[in-house]
Amino acid sequence: MEIRGVTIEDTFAEAFTMHAARIVITGRNMRWAREAALKLTGFATSVIGCKCEAGIERELPASDTPDGRPGVSVLFLTMDADSLGKRLIERLGQTVLTCPTTACFDGLPKAPDRLTVGKALRVFGDGFQASKVIGGARYWRIPVMEGEFLVSESFGRQTGVGGGNFLILAGDADAALAAAEAAVGAIEPMEGVVLPFPGGVVRSGSKVGSKRYKKLLATTNDAFSPTLRAITTTAVPDGVNCVLELVLDGLDDAAISAAMAAGIRAACIDGVRAISAGNYGGKLGPHHFHLRRILTPAS
Amino acid sequence: MSETVTLTLRSALDRDLVALGLTADRCAAAGAKQIAELPVFYGGQPARVGDFFAIQGERAARLLLVGDLTRASGIGAGMTGGDLVIEGHVGRDAGAWMSGGTIDIHGDAGDNLGGAAPGASRGMTGGEIVVRGRAGTDAAASLRRGLIVIAGDAGDRMGQRMIAGSVLLCGKTGRGAGRWIKRGSIVSLAPIERPATFRYACTYQPPHLSVTFLYLRKRYGLSIDHRYVAGRYARYSGDLAELGKGEILEWVG
Fold this sequence. Notes:
heterodimer; A: alpha+beta; 12-stranded mixed sheet; 3-stranded antiparallel sheet; 7 helices; 17 strands; 23% helix; 35% strand; B: alpha/beta; 4-stranded mixed sheet; 4 helices; 11% helix
């Protein structure tokens, strides 16, 4: 299979079930909503080292937020249900509660599983906090020096999918980066999916474990590292000198599939030789995204 | 089963009708015949709902009352759930000591709206009441939880002895609003006379108010001007003769 002369390898991305929450942050203007979202999603690229993965899903116009102010929607994921609440309490308390003008709302109000994040954060109010029930949902008003921080008492939790991915195999670094940027641009407006890595792109794809250091959970993906092509079992085709990866987390398989397809199509530009994907032989993750299948519209 | 149970007043009430059991949750579980048999008092004498209302529909969580019920008291009192809509005025004790559901009054309400039963320390403990017109005296008195919205004016002693919950008043109120409240919020879009035991704190934009206003627009179709949604409010803490954790929020522009 080829798209504009770029080979789509007959392989699949292998992804994992995660636990997800959607956080809606609003602010006096988009700048402050975004400032909080950027801090909240900072150092949240991979559960390997960050204990969570998060990214900005999309910017929300004032008409789409609970308080009528501009907002940002964030997807936040962890590997287990318990740690999702803990990470959210830590991060919302340090990054959103602290940020001028912001308020923080549950973005999955219909999810039956609830994380009582706002209820935990309320104690920052030292007894001066107050709650309000509005439309059946409880919010906490936490007094702060600026005024009040408003936060939903609980946030919905649902299963999500982490680790959707594809690899851009290019003739040089310029082409790889241009293709990755185009792919990110195609994915960014899509709902239900985030790209947790810097600018949405990973240069340091990893494999499970280590060939040399037994304690390490993940080490460089030597099979896709062009500099190691001559000394390892390589997956880098002839003429490829740079590989970049896009990692996608989302709320369900459909969101990941649609985003991968859009990203791959956008990445097929001059200088790109092939699109591949990372997997573990299908033994570790239950979500398999076969590149050729997701790029073939169902008849 | 139908979507709405509609009770239409057959003729004007010339005596007081006490209709304490007329609630949305009760009608949700009742057939038309059972609704007709619900007991009321008319002029102090036992009577039945069916004596005064034409009944359409049964077993629906939405109850619609049509007619001038100014002389009917206790409608929606003690309600635990469902939606009660009143197309007309309603008398005293509407929604008193209710614990859940919504009451939407397209007219004026009498005294003790959402208030307490005689001798009880707690009034309404949950749910929402929206009055499109005016409310009488003692609205939201001893409110424990829930939201009461009054689009017009309210009488004396609004929110007196509130324990918690919220009252939103779009018009003017009489004397004694908020006296002896422990917690809770009285939000006034017009200048409001405060007890001397309330103290000014600051002027700011309470973030929960915009959420509340947008919810009320969406849920009840209330036309709340943007200047109130995005406006600044003076916060007065009180009642300092009590716990002092309550507030009066007065819109200042």
